[in-house]
């Protein structure tokens, strides 16, 4: 049960980081073009 919670938290943080990275890329592309 604990490992499942840990996996869920890690997955959420990773997806959050990827989402933030995607937003940064879109912002940079929008500013330059």
Automatic annotation (TrEMBL):
Keywords: Membrane, Transmembrane, Transmembrane helix
Transmembrane segments: 14-32
Keyword Transmembrane: yes
Protein name per UniProt: Uncharacterized protein
Organism: Anguilla anguilla (European freshwater eel)
């Amino acid at each position: 049960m604990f490992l499942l919670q840990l996996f869920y938290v890690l997955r959420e943080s990773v997806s959050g980081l990827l989402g933030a990275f995607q937003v940064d890329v879109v912002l940079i592309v929008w500013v330059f073009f």
